[in-house]
């Protein structure tokens, strides 16, 4: 059988049960591979001796070899399926599928080469209810990531919020932010990115 087989549990890559709709529609083996890829392509490539270039790209051969050393067995077919079947398109290949990178969400410093874009008037941010008090005081910040992530629709934002607890969807006056000089970017998989969102641009709802 292709995919992740039983092997040394040398890296914790998460449990396949998750409220994210992406997880529910994927084979549990593919979920495990996806979580592992998020770890090493977004946050800690050194965990498996992987090198990312300035734009976040890694050699596919190096990823597969590093995964094998870590006890996470991934074959080419499984890797292709994870990239293709991930409805949120978290990962992307280059043209000849020799290199791979995460589409956004990095905590390591990378330049995705995104050009500034004019956002829609409103964007949405999903979070947990437990975070609202802090956001009311300081706004939205990227924390360990390079950007604040915003969604184009409320349903996607709510799905993001569900990962962290009881979801709350905040409305961001992205158009007004842009007119006030704030930059926005749009990742390859449609996530809107900005450095921070001050409180005055956030509608917390009723």
What does it look like?
It is a single chain. This protein has 206 residues and is α+β, with helices and mostly antiparallel strands. It has two domains: 82 residues, RNA 2'-phosphotransferase, Tpt1/KptA family, N-terminal domain (Arc Repressor Mutant, subunit A); 81 residues, ADP-ribosylation fold. The protein is built from seven helices and eleven strands. Strands 1-3-2 form a three-stranded antiparallel β-sheet. Strand 8 and strand 9 form a beta hairpin. Helix 2 crosses helix 4. The protein is globular. The chain starts with 20 loop residues before the first helix and ends with a strand.
Question: Can I get a quick summary?
Answer:
The chain has 206 residues and is of the alpha+beta class. The protein has seven helices and eleven strands.
Order of H and E elements? HHEHHEEEHEEHEHEEEE
What is the averaged pLDDT score?
84
Shape: globular
Structural class estimated from helices and strands: alpha+beta
- Tell me about the largest β-sheet: 3 strands, antiparallel
Which short descriptors sum up this protein?
three-stranded antiparallel β-sheet; globular; 206 residues; Arc Repressor Mutant, subunit A; ADP-ribosylation fold; disordered N terminus; alpha+beta
What's the helix and strand layout?
Layout: H1 21-25, H2 28-43, E1 58-59, H3 60-69, H4 76-85, E2 91-93, E3 99-102, E4 123-128, H5 132-138, E5 140-141, E6 148-150, H6 154-162, E7 167-172, H7 174-179, E8 185-186, E9 192-194, E10 196-197, E11 202-203
Antiparallel strand pairs: 1-3, 2-3, 4-7, 5-10, 6-9, 7-11, 8-9
Helix pairs in contact: 2-4
